[in-house]
Amino acid sequence: MAYKDLRAFLARLEDEGHLARVKVDVDLKYEIGAVCRKVLDSSGPALFFERPGGYSVPLVTNSLGTRRRYALALHTTPDKVHQEWVSRTARPIPPTVVKTGPCKENILLGDEVDLFKLPIPIWNALDGGAYITFPCHISKDPETGERNCGMYRTMVHDRKTVGILAAPFRHISLHRAKAPDKPFPVAIALGLDPAIHCATVAPFPQGTDEMAMAGALRGEPVEMVPCETIPLEVPACAEVVLEGEIPPAVTRVEGVFGEFTGYYGLRLPQPVIEIKAMTYRNNPIHQAVYEGRPPNEDSIMLAVPLEAEMARLLPLPGLRQIYMSIGGSGAFNAVASIEKRFEGYGKMMGLAILGAWAGRQIKNLIIVDDDIDPSDPRQVEWALATRVQPHRDVEIIKVVLGSPLDPSLPESERASGAARTSKMIIDATRYDAKDFETVCSPKEEASAQVEKEWARYGISL
User: Is there a domain that residue 294 lies in?
Assistant: First the structure.
């Protein structure tokens, strides 16, 4: 079932008409970002830029930019992706270590390292520089050896140095804090089997090995190879691997950068990673995502695993579905449908969702009855309009963990990384349901007959 690597996934996308090849030269500074923006606004295909900025190294974007392509990455369909996620992740498959792999076909060490061998765009008008936007950062807890894989924005400072933005509560920051006076090894893998990327951005609880979860999602172990210069292992199938260390007490100004929220954020001193080695496949492919206002690829990549993790970790009686809206950047706004058991059940469900690790970034949560499709904004708006009394059904929770990328927070909160926010639960379920107004609809038999004989009406929908 598993894709061997990124190339196998791209071949599948192309076979099914989900990939467009851009054969003309496209400028890395702003032009690629403008092309990506237009394609995303139209829910368009994955893009394969064959000669970005005149480079012979191609650039791939928008590979997971729709729920259909996300499902293809896991060899399933959009309607089954949550069920498959829950089923597969119940049985993690640890990675296996092999002696070598495709990512070792070319090895550059020390002064040979040059990040500008890769086509790395400047995406948006005010970006402070070129950014690697689809990295898998691999590190380990210096005390326990526990592996962590995460995705953090990566600014290219020079040919051998990148910046990293990671909030204090992210696992890489918590691990690094255990040995703050020593260089902290980090490997950055680029261009991977999509199941690895899906696991990398998923909100798994601390202590989870994302590579074991990637194995579960792909149905077989991820093969990993030892790094050349640091005590870490990386996926053997990677197109490019950057090996480096975060030196203690060294920072450089990072930003600004157009984020998945659609805003630029702050320009602040952040840690750097000094690259010691660069390994890559023959004829490598650089994989990236365009960051900016929704819709964007990040919204899908954040939303789908968060929804699935909620289903996995919160098997609450009556919880039907959780939907992360694209307009909410796939992280901040959620709608949950429930089978309401009694009054107060909606708010109880809301508190459970916001209290879960996977729900830590949710800011606005709407609870609806199970007759409402949470992914249909018109149905949700109807529930808000006809089932909510604000004085009774809206709860505000103050001073809880949010996201430092939330532009509505004061700058002091965002700069500190603490990101203390308020959160809102709207209980849009029917109050006193047994006496609530009856929903009107055509007679069931008539609707069934119309559906059966629809062709005779000559109406194209």
Answer: no
pLDDT of 70 reads: 97
Is residue 276 domain-shared with residue 321, that is, in the same domain?
Answer: no
Q: Which helix (H) or strand (E) holds 453?
A: none
Of the chain, the end-to-end C-alpha distance in Å amounts to 36
Same domain for 252 and 158: yes
Query: Is 278 in contact with 114 (CB distance < 8 Å)?
Result: yes
Please, what's the b/e burial string for 393-415 (b: 16 or more CB within 10 A of its CB; e: otherwise)?
A: beeeeeeeebbbbbeebeeebbe
Q: Provide the domain limits for residue 58.
A: 6-287
Helix 297-313 vs helix 194-201: crossing angle, to nearest 10: 70
Determine contact, residues 269/169, Cβ cutoff 8 Å.
no
- 128 and 260 housed in the same domain: yes
* pTM listed for this prediction: 0.90
pLDDT digits (tens, 9 = 90+) for 187-231: 999 999 999 999 999 999 888 999 999 999 999 999 999 999 999
Going 29 to 30 to 35 to 37, the CA torsion angle's sign is: positive
